[in-house]
Write a structure and sequence with these properties.
By secondary structure, the chain is an alpha/beta fold. The protein has one domain: 4-Layer Sandwich (Purple Acid Phosphatase, chain A, domain 2), CATH 3.60.21.10. The protein contains 9 helices and 10 strands. One of its GO terms (molecular function) is phosphatase activity.
Length: 246
């Protein structure tokens, strides 16, 4: 079995479509959706595209799914996060909400040549916890306590890496729809004993125009911040480092 891992799509449908074309070319048997799927400018369209994958898709929830469901159900959060979730919740229907509700925090699959692989959005214990490529081993041991799988794949921080943490391998595929760093849509392909960190190019300006034409109230701002002029990995690491402590 070969598994494609798509994290942090953030409702960037043009980036997702480009990646799915690559996934089909690579012949992936399963597609793991690693959370923060619909939190962005084209949530309904993105969910419809992914729902069409049927049983080929394996869904994991992130903090974004929890927040959008809460907003849809009339339990909006605080601050910018709550406002973003409310904007997305206003653009989806009950069927989309039901698709996001009750998704698992973790999923484990046996992958050819790699054995059992645990997939989660942020960490196996929380959907909003920050761990980074340069987080110390003690931090990794804390967030992965009780995990027996030799390979853990997580997202949330939008930056790809592949590292060891006390004899355990941890991989982040990067973000499909909201990358920090060089342009492109980032994902991973697992199988045949190999982990490949992949980047799919797509036309950012055309994608931005499509996003701006949508109904999201912050579409123009979103397109500029995350598609045409995204933050660097250095900026993201600086912002997230202070959030890695319990």
């Amino acid at each position: 079995m070969r598994v494609a891992v798509l994290a942090d799509v953030h409702a960037n449908l043009p980036a997702l479509e480009a990646v799915l074309d690559d996934v089909d070319t690579c012949g992936a048997d399963r597609i793991v959706l690693l959370g923060d799927i619909a939190g962005g400018p084209l949530p309904a369209e993105t969910l419809d595209r992914l729902a069409a994958l049927g049983d080929r898709a394996v869904w994991v929830h992130g903090n974004g799914e929890r927040e959008i469901v809460d907003a849809f159900d009339g339990r909006p959060g605080d601050g910018r996060t709550g406002a973003d979730a409310a904007d997305c919740a206003a653009l989806i229907e009950q069927r989309h909400r039901d698709l996001l509700h009750g998704l698992p925090l973790t999923v484990t699959l046996d992958v050819d040549g790699l054995g059992p692989v645990l997939f989660c959005h942020a960490t196996p214990r929380r959907d909003d916890e920050f761990v980074l490529v340069d987080s110390p081993v003690a931090r990794w041991n804390a967030v992965l306590g009780g995990v027996s799988a030799p390979l853990v794949v997580c997202g949330h921080t939008h930056m790809p890496f592949d590292r060891l943490a006390d004899r355990r391998r941890v991989v982040n595929p990067g973000s499909v729809g909201m990358n920090y760093g060089p342009p492109g849509a980032y994902w991973a392909l697992l199988g045949d004993g190999v982990v490949q960190l992949r980047r799919t190019p797509y036309d950012a300006r055309r994608a931005a125009a499509r996003i701006v034409a949508g109904r999201h109230p912050q579409a123009a701002w979103w397109a500029e911040q995350y598609v045409t002029a995204p933050y660097s990995d250095a900026d993201a690491l600086a912002a997230f480092t202070g959030l890695t402590r319990d």
